[in-house]
Amino acid sequence: MTNQPEIINDISASSTETEAASAAPTRLTPMMEQYIEIKAANVDSLLFYRMGDFYELFFQDAVEASKALGITLTKRGKHLGDEIPMCGVPFHAADDYLQKLIAKGYRVAVCEQVEDPAEAKKRGSKSVVKRDVVRLVTPGTLTEEKLLDPSEANFLMTLGRVKGEADNVLALAWIDISTGTFRVTESSPERMFADIMRVDPRELIVAEPVFHDPELRPTFDLIGRSVIPQPAILFDSAAAQSRIQRYYDVATLDGFGQFSRSELSAISGAIAYIEKTQISERPPLMRPEREQEGSTLFIDPATRANLEMVRTLSGQRDGSLLKAIDRTVTGGGSRLLAERLTAPLTSAPAIQARLDAVSYFLNEPVLSDALRLELKGVPDMPRGLSRLAVGRGGPRDMGALQRGFDAARSIVELLSGKDLPSELKAALHALSAIPQTLQDHLDKALADELPLLKRDGGFVREGYHDELDEMRALRDQSRRVIAGLQQSYIDETGIKTLKIKHNNVLGYFIEVTANNAGVMTDSDEAKARFIHRQTMANAMRFTTTELAELETKIANAADRALSIEAAIFDTLTAEIVLFADLIRAAASALAVYDVSVALAVLADEQGYCRPIVDDSLAFNIVGGRHPVVEQALRRQAANPFVANNCDLSPQNNDKYGAIWLLTGPNMGGKSTFLRQNALIAMMAQMGSFVPAGSAHIGIVDRLFSRVGASDDLARGRSTFMVEMVETAAILNQAGERALVILDEIGRGTATFDGLSIAWAAVEYLHEKNRCRSLFATHFHEMTALSEKLNRLSNVTMRVKEWDNDVVFLHEVAQGAADRSYGVQVARLAGLPEAVVNRARDVLKQLEEGETSGKANKLIDDLPLFSVVLKQETPKAQVLDNELQQALDAIRPDDLSPREALEALYRLKEISITK
């Protein structure tokens, strides 16, 4: 245990402090003085202060950490008259505790010993080992395997703004340091929230003046604690270019592309924050890739939530669209699929390239199965690469790269000579570019079984390094000698329980029980032979000159072997990092293959079709299904999903897309129908086959969905206010290429208010926005708009009435509903029968004519309602109920002929007596 001297030194300091407590009650030990000094520089983080084999926390950090981690809070010394709270976590299990703290939103400063404890001891008994923060662990800068979800990206985002730029342009840059991904795009105050939520960063870093900007602050408050203000100097656009050049070690940024000043500010801020948190380490980031505005489908945050793209409204992954379509077998593939789903393309050629790749594997099932088998063994190469580059990697990360290279080689052999579509051909080229020299070097250097940590040794293959083999032989031979020496001591003393043991304080020693120790201490000759080292409660420990000399040889051989292996590890790491760009490109290619094959498997399994995607305004889906609901019904062995058509394409040589006004009952399937068409459009533009018989979709550039009801009490918004805010955003932003899904606009207020708002909104969509729209409503009066608006059509959810009940057919048909069947649905929900009957009576009166003047009559009837509840149940109803109960009690299969006859007489008697 190399850090043991430090523990002894710190304890000694505490003893000195205790002795002087009466004279100077506020005096701190040198160790605590060092802690307070380091903590003062990291006030916004919990300080993990390394002491031996533990990370210790003190003062308020200890109080918070003990609660968050559920660990014991102890005390150590005093400060200003009060005892100092303390808690700690083992060094070897630190990742588990970090995972819990990061999940709860904490930031952690990791403080390590930066010198050998022996050097501190030379300076004096009261000197403490030098320590310093080597890393800030934050939610957006994680690299450890235990702290990351393999299926999700872990983005850190920065916001850049330069005053004076035209149109108040903002810029967003986002990095996943665990994979090296680095992208940047321009934004605006109006769409900033949508752009941020599309990426869904774990941390959003902004300059302090921007954080307090009254125009942007409401958005930051909405995002919450993941927004971290930082000094404005990190975003200084004047110094941005030089900071970026230093990080990438280039003389000019001409090869990076053209960036605005705001984009340079955001890029520089991201790099500055990485440098701040990683201290001396430099993750190998990709060069910033500029994302062109409009290259992806704009989806506002409300729409992302309503459509449950990545998570359900309750925050679960199960039940989301991503979960329903994910058939990937690698972490990289799963992350790429999520990225494509959250940012569908708006370029028809690019979409066609992705669809071509899916079609290729769908038509090559044997090849697809073979490729999928190879992919299942592919480890997460980008994350292993990043850990190695920042000094947190181990031999198994190298082994992951080695296995990834082997899989890449097999896939290249599998696909070579095939007539591949463009996307798959480019991916094959990236796999072929893996440097063979690096692959061969790893094969020669790494053993078959690899330890987790390099300090454990044993990861270099035998025969790779001559001196290492020599040191290992000496070390292993000496172990056999130790065993032989132990046996000779047993023979010499006659103590069969004698053992030669080792620890980091005493080294090698002989241990015998206290009862047997007399053999080694009874004579002067024995005492000279067996030198006493330590007395324990039930044992005594000794050494010999022979054992001490052997220990020196063993220690030197073992230490030298570990030193050689550490040097080999560093050499291999440097060589790996040198080829970082090629390794990442190969990993991206493997992810492309995984996603393409997975979507082909999905299409074959679920019966999806290839959509036609072009630059027209078409939107014609035949036999469309909801991808999530359909699979849920299949798992439950319920009735099959009812497919429906949807045609919002321009009609009769019209220039613009159509609007469907959808009426029908609650529970009839309106919301499902609305959502499924939005999801089909997204899936088509992400490059996936879609759940339909056929689909022709003209590029959608903006997708808006207003489905469901919710409030926003934190910002003082009622359900209706939220509805109006989201509707306003749609009407103000939708253009002719947009797809708008609206459900029950105006239902949160008075009937006539709601009807008027919904009416006006439809007219605005038709005349001003001119976009393809689905508008569901219970305001049946609006169906009259089809006579006035030429691009509006009435459609309805079909139902059948039977025996005073309603049967939902879930079919969409031309025409309009004349009622919503709300009372029937209320009955199905279990409302008391008296309430349902009264509701029918009120509804009948309201439907007899205009509602004006009816209210007073209904109010006059209200006392009757309470009387009805108190009245005795009508005789006929009592009879029906008693007969029903008697019938329910009869089990025909259990009755003998005689018992059946008696049951019939009882039923007859009930009917006569009542």
TrEMBL record:
Residue sites binding ATP per the record: G664, P665, N666, M667, G668, G669, K670, S671
GO MF annotation: an example: ATP-dependent DNA damage sensor activity
Biased composition (Low complexity): 12-24
UniProt region (Disordered), positions on chain: 1-24
Keywords, sorted A to Z: ATP-binding, Coiled coil, DNA damage, DNA repair, DNA-binding, Nucleotide-binding
Sections of the chain in a coiled coil: 540-567
Entry annotated with the keyword DNA repair: yes
GO term, biological process aspect, one: mismatch repair
Keyword Coiled coil belongs to the record: yes
Ranges of residues in domain DNA mismatch repair proteins mutS family: 738-754
GO CC, any one term: cytosol
Record-linked PANTHER family: DNA MISMATCH REPAIR PROTEIN MSH1, MITOCHONDRIAL, DNA MISMATCH REPAIR PROTEIN MUTS FAMILY MEMBER
Similarity remark: Belongs to the DNA mismatch repair MutS family.
Annotated function: This protein is involved in the repair of mismatches in DNA. It is possible that it carries out the mismatch recognition step. This protein has a weak ATPase activity.
HAMAP family recorded: MutS
Record-given protein name: DNA mismatch repair protein MutS
Gene behind this protein: mutS
